[in-house]
């Protein structure tokens, strides 16, 4: 389901009246005591909670905002453009350290995506073809699938895929967390 865009008509200064942001850690803390579900939250308490998708969300003025968007507003003084995502470079959705955030098109954000849950090879863009008994490497660029070849060894298919990521995706190539 697509993310619902909520109205964002408040400024950096208004956010800074109620929240502190630490660019080194990516953490947010409340500057003010406020009412919350089940009681009150004291000034200095950690702000936000991790949602089901792994993103930190912070409730402000009757709506929930992703912490990476608030960090962008605080650090740049402007909301991120509505046609761009604030991407987590290391793919850890709860890591809102400033050095980890960057603007990306949806396509660039997808380039840095992790493994799909149905991946069996353990490597993005690499699968075993039973009909040829070889490892098959491919990459999708601009909506087109580019076949990188069939390989006897898994390591060769993985190397071909990583070389193609560097060539086609540049800085948005997925950070390897695979074995």
Describe this structure in words.
The protein is 22% helix and 28% strand. By secondary structure, it is of the alpha+beta class. The protein folds into two domains: 12-89, no CATH class; 110-172, GCC-box Binding Domain (2-Layer Sandwich), CATH 3.30.730. The strands form five sheets. It has a three-stranded antiparallel beta sheet. β11 (134-141) and β12 form a beta hairpin. The chain is elongated.
List the helices and strands and how they pair.
Blueprint: H1 12-18, E1 19-21, E2 28-30, E3 34-36, E4 39-41, E5 49-50, E6 56-60, E7 63-66, H2 67-76, E8 85-88, E9 101-104, H3 106-111, E10 126-129, E11 134-141, E12 144-151, H4 154-169
Antiparallel strand pairs: 1-2, 3-4, 5-6, 6-7, 8-9, 10-11, 11-12
Tally the helices: 4
Q: What is the overall pLDDT average?
A: 83
Q: Looking at the structure, what is the overall shape?
A: elongated
Helix-strand string: HEEEEEEEHEEHEEEH
Rg result = 20 Å
How many domains, as an integer? 2
Q: Describe the largest sheet.
A: 3 strands, antiparallel
Uncertain runs with pLDDT below 50, 5 residues or more?
A: none
Structural class estimated from helices and strands: alpha+beta
Number of E-state strands: 12
Helix content: 10-25%
| Strand arrangement, major sheet | 5-6-7
% residues in beta strands: 25-35%
Short description:
The protein is of the alpha+beta class. It has four helices and twelve strands.
Which tags fit this structure?
single chain, about 180 residues, GCC-box Binding Domain, elongated
């Amino acid at each position: 389901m697509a993310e619902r865009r909520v109205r964002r008509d408040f400024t950096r200064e208004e956010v800074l009246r109620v929240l502190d942001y630490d660019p080194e850690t990516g953490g947010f803390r409340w500057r003010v005591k406020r009412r919350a579900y089940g009681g009150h939250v004291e000034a200095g308490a950690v702000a936000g909670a991790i949602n089901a998708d792994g993103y930190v969300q912070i409730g402000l003025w009757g709506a929930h905002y992703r912490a990476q968007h608030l960090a962008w507003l605080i650090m740049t003084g402007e909301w991120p453009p509505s046609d761009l995502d604030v991407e987590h470079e290391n793919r850890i959705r709860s890591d809102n350290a400033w050095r980890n955030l960057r603007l990306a098109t949806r396509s660039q954000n997808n380039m840095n995506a992790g493994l799909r849950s149905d991946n069996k090879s353990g490597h993005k863009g690499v699968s075993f073809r039973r009909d040829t008994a070889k490892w098959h490497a491919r990459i999708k660029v601009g909506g087109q699938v580019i076949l990188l070849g069939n390989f006897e060894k898994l390591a060769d298919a993985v190397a071909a895929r990583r070389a193609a990521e560097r060539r086609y995706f540049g800085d948005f190539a997925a950070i390897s967390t695979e074995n």
